[in-house]
Amino acid sequence: MRVKRIGRLSAEVQVGDLTVIALSDGQTVMPSTHLCGMDGAPLADLPGADLVDGQLRLQVTAFVVSGPEGCLLIDSGAADAWHPSLGLLPQAMAEAGIAADDITVVALTHTHVDHISGLTRSDTGFAFPQADRVFVPEAEMGLFRAEPRMARVLPRAVMMQPGEGIMPGVVAIAAPGHEVGHTAFLVGGSLLIWGDIIHHPAIQFARPAVTWSYDTDPAQARATRASLLARAAAEGWFVAGAHLAWPCIGQVSVAGDGYAFHPVNAPSTAVY
Ligand SMILES: [Zn+2]
Asked: CATH number of the domain that 179 lies in?
């Protein structure tokens, strides 16, 4: 993998013949009580947490995988549906030189507000009119259909199952727990775009048993996180996540009882 460019709102790496671009939707903060221990109660102490005025920093990021067969958007940010500091996806795409009409296919990790809301714009409906399919994890389809804002996206929604190839070089992998159908995507066999496996990187890499209060099934989320962290470290995969530290792409190593995250930094010509 080669780091091509890291900008303010977009960052680009090359994986074989695929270009993966992180697109920042912005950042916000969440209450410190959102990080929970094994008993489900908020953590009493947060040494090493990434705090802004006593609250947890939360990045929100979408990704594009671009290759000879098309341009895949994975997740779409919060648009104007959640916190006012979010909704920067269009600016991030402009910085990266990607037009809305360049997107030929969309896939979702899950159906939470900070991942699906950017699919629609209040003025024109579906925001990516050249994308003929929006892959939704099968187990998330009910939640997707129930979201009024997605009414104009439904005609393009296609059920997706683990193991399915979304486009050449991109495979869906089951990663349940945070949400029932939560799905990750392995790109080029070496970069895992893993959605919401980690919400607060400053805590959860070192302490992967810590859960997030929005996890639908905390025990399942914990097990999935343990499994994917172990796999990423063992295989030397790069990981990319919606809520990782900017540029939201990096590598995982074993560190003590947990893991450490090493975000890619300087653009380089090094091939890892
Ligand atoms: Zn999320």
From this structure: 3.60.15.10
Q: Is residue 117 in a domain?
A: yes
Distance between Cα 102 and ligand 1 center (Å): 24
Contact yes or no for 201/35 (Cβ under 8 A): no
Q: For residue 147, which of 115, 194, 189 has the smallest C-alpha distance?
A: 115
Ligand 1 geometric centre to CA of 115 (Å): 6
Taking the model in full, what pTM does it have? 0.96
C-alpha–C-alpha distance, residues 247 and 23, integer Å? 9
With respect to residue 272, please indicate whether it lies within any of the assigned structural domains.
no
In a domain, 269, yes or no: no
Residue 57 Cα, ligand 1 centroid: separation in angstroms? Answer: 13
Give domain status of residue 268, yes or no: no
| Ligand 1 centroid distance, CA of 243 (Å) | 7
Centre of ligand 1 from the C-alpha of residue 100, in Å:
22
Residue 271 has pLDDT above 70, yes or no: no
Total number of domains constituting the chain = 1
Nearest CA to 36 among 257, 196, 209, 245?
Answer: 209
Residue 270: pLDDT over 70 = no
Rounded to the nearest angstrom, the distance between the alpha carbon of 271 and the centre of ligand 1 is 30
Domain carrying residue 76: 2-263
Query: What spacing in Å lies between the alpha carbon of 4 and ligand 1's midpoint?
Result: 26
CA angle 240, 233, 224 (to 5 degrees): 70
236 CA → ligand 1 middle, Å: 24
CB 115 within 8 A of CB 107: no
The tens digit of pLDDT for each residue in 104-131 reads 999 999 999 999 999 998 767 899 999 9
